[in-house]
Design brief:
alpha+beta, HIT family, subunit A, globular
Length: about 140
């Protein structure tokens, strides 16, 4: 299994660093974010070290999604204030990834919590521009 001895999340998985665990199985671990965006903020982390989701095997990525779904339901049923949930994944430093071990954030939300994930939309492209962009992405897509 891929691991990186310098990686914080690999150290947590190896039991070399503390974390407040919520769930563990053979594929993923889920623990409390140490610097939460909102109370109850969780991270779903694959045991295998992959910097980008691009290299995570499909079965592992699907498992992460299933665990995130299960934790979303748990949060909604729990005493943690949860009127909604954001799932968030930053792939690459330019997208805000700080820990280079791909992981999924599960963030409880409630009306008026003050968190803003929305961004401005600088321009509305024409249909032609959308078609051109879609063609470029399709041309680069690997099965
Ligand atoms: P990202 O920007 O998507 O890479 O998110 C990294 C997340 O990991 C941040 O929300 C951090 O607060 C969280 N984090 C970093 N170190 C730890 C740690 N030792 N235990 C728990 N969460 C951590
Ligand atoms: Zn790692």
């Amino acid at each position: 299994m891929n691991t990186d001895p310098a990686c914080i999340f690999c150290k947590i998985i190896a039991g070399e660093m503390p974390a407040t665990m919520v769930a563990e199985d053979e594929v993923t671990i889920a623990f409390m974010d140490i610097n939460p965006v909102n109370e109850g903020h969780l991270l779903v982390v694959p045991r295998e070290h992959h910097q980008s989701i691009a290299s995570i095997p499909g079965s592992v990525l699907s498992h992460m999604a299933l665990i995130a779904r299960w934790l979303t339901a748990a949060l909604r049923a729990s005493l943690v204030r949860t009127e909604g949930v954001n799932l968030y994944l930053a792939d690459g430093a330019a997208a805000g990834q700080e820990v280079p071990h791909a992981h999924l954030h599960v963030i409880p939300r409630w009306r008026g919590d003050g968190i803003r994930i929305s961004v401005g939309r600088p321009a509305t492209p024409t249909r032609e521009q959308l078609e051109e962009m879609a063609a470029q992405i399709r041309a680069a897509a690997i099965d």
